[in-house]
Amino acid sequence: MTDKKTRNEAMKHGDYVMVPGSYGPRRDFRITVGLREGWDAEGRVYDVSEAVRTARVWMLRRVEAGLPALSGMFTRAEVTYAWPRADGTAGSDREPVAVFTGEAVHAYLGHLSDQDIENMLSELAIELGAALGQERLYVSFCDRTWILDSSVQSV
After folding, report:
1. Which domain holds residue 71?
2. Number of structural domains found in the chain
């Protein structure tokens, strides 16, 4: 007989130990990408599963190349916003978004610099934006945030 617990046996507090090398700084991230293509209300609305598929392909491609990849969780949400119009009135709208959240877990990615993680986040965000027909992408990591925009070209 083995000392391992069967699935039906309850685990107890003493059954868990901290995984060696897993303790380290918390490095949370988030990518927010629209699911409605373009700026018009009539634009195609993608399902969050399209974002999931795109991220999984990106992850697999990196791992197959011997590179680290981020892992995380997708949720569907709605972003709401308002803006002042030129005539003095206000406009308001909402749109569906996919939100990819996670942590650069110390046990797996602790050897990477913050800049390495930021580069991966931007790379994944751009893949998501291209797949979902988005011009603007919102990324955050730890205490930093940035916007990637395909319509703004560097001089």
Report:
1. 23-149
2. 1
Q: Which of 94, 147, 152 is nearest to 125 (CA)?
A: 147
Taking residues 103-116, what's their average pLDDT?
Answer: 95
What CATH number is attached to the domain comprising 55?
3.30.70
Coil vs helix vs strand at 85: coil
How far is 143 from 155, CA to CA, in rounded Å?
28
Domain-embedded: residue 97: yes
Q: In Å, how far from its chain's centre is CA 55?
A: 9
Enter the pTM of the model.
0.86
Burial class (CB in 10 A: 0-12, 13-18, 19+), 29: buried
Q: Is the pLDDT of residue 12 over 90?
A: no
